[in-house]
Amino acid sequence: MTGAAGKEAQGVRPAAARITYADAGVDTHAGDKAVELMKDAVARTHGPEVLGGIGAFAGLFDASALKAYRRPLLASSTDGVGTKIVIARQMGVHDTIGQDLVAMVVDDIVVCGAKPLVMTDYIACGKVVPERIADIVRGIAMGCEMAGVALVGGETAEHPGVMDPDDYDVAGAAIGVVEADALLGPERVREGDVVVAMAASGLHSNGYSLVRSVVAHAGWALETQLPDLGRSVGAELLEPTRIYSKLCVDLAATVPGLHAFSHVTGGGLAANVARVMPTGLAAYVARDAWELPAIFSVVQAAGGVPWNDLESTLNMGVGMVALVTAEDANALMAACKAAGVPAWALGEVVIDDGRMASPDVIRGAKGVHGGAVYLTGNYSA
């Protein structure tokens, strides 16, 4: 059989009308408009090392400078911003989430002493709204400028039928480089090192499933003004993640006694510091070494959150940690202060006798089997 009758016999019904890609929910013209709206912001992250422009299949970066390295090691990282993105969508504020994304990616790279070079992003959405996509990418580009990183590529994918029209999610990846003999990490950490805290700007981009549950339990709207915070709940929750990369790269180049960094993300302060502690050593961290920012005590009280659960989920006001010799600790803290980042001593590295065992001790985290972190005292709020 041939024709329409034959097709129906094979289970294929003749179309009553033409179905276009736009009918299926994908608007390629909207995607093109979004690119036009974002391209100037992206171009501002490009130095002479970036070849070509927006629209190429691959971003090109001139790596000739790596010839000066004796043994260059490439460092890579990829991440997202978790459920903080729900707050951004609810508030209709989409640019700050871009800075969050850059921070989550590049600040992982600098932990080993690497200088971030290039970044790419990926945005998945239910419907491309050009102005919204452009806001997100402008935020990413602004974060890349702050981090000294070239935004060399990205992708926006429209997923109708999979995501609701107003839904979106973001992810990013970056590559950096470090000289092999300048690599920072647990191999350098020594007894007597000082544990230095570098202040967080707020909640950063971890633990938002817990925080959103507390907000719902408390019955707060995002517009609710809380006296303890001095602003609305939504403004506090959307505070962008601090980007430490330029500061950390400078510290790695100028502080000879710097041994390791730890980016405080998922798992909290102790678990992330434990990732850079070598076997046989422990970092003592005094909870009363700093005043707890208001948002953390507000979340704890409003949700009746157990303190050990709070500190294993949120950063508690510390976004990055440096482990440095006692001789260079003051110089490192002074450099942080000069860069506008408050820093203070949390504790010190000691021999781990292995005898202490309690909820206040973290040994190993995220697959790393190394030293320990001992949390002592109580928080000052």
From TrEMBL:
Domain of life: Bacteria
EC number annotated for this UniProt entry: 6.3.3.1
Molecular-function annotations in GO: ATP binding; phosphoribosylamine-glycine ligase activity; phosphoribosylformylglycinamidine cyclo-ligase activity
SUPFAM superfamilies: PurM C-terminal domain-like, PurM N-terminal domain-like
Protein name: Phosphoribosylformylglycinamidine cyclo-ligase
Keyword Nucleotide-binding tagged: yes
Gene Ontology CC terms, in alphabetical order: cytosol
Domain PurM-like N-terminal: residue ranges: 65-178
Catalytic reaction(s) noted: 2-formamido-N(1)-(5-O-phospho-beta-D-ribosyl)acetamidine + ATP = 5-amino-1-(5-phospho-beta-D-ribosyl)imidazole + ADP + phosphate + H(+)
UniProt subcellular location: Cytoplasm
Secretion signal, residue range per the UniProt entry: none
Keywords: ATP-binding, Cytoplasm, Ligase, Nucleotide-binding, Purine biosynthesis
Protein species of origin: Demequina lutea
Family designation: Belongs to the AIR synthase family.
GO BP: 'de novo' IMP biosynthetic process; adenine biosynthetic process
PANTHER family in UniProt: TRIFUNCTIONAL PURINE BIOSYNTHETIC PROTEIN ADENOSINE-3, TRIFUNCTIONAL PURINE BIOSYNTHETIC PROTEIN ADENOSINE-3-RELATED
Pathway membership: Purine metabolism; IMP biosynthesis via de novo pathway; 5-amino-1-(5-phospho-D-ribosyl)imidazole from N(2)-formyl-N(1)-(5-phospho-D-ribosyl)glycinamide: step 2/2
Domain PurM-like C-terminal: 190-352
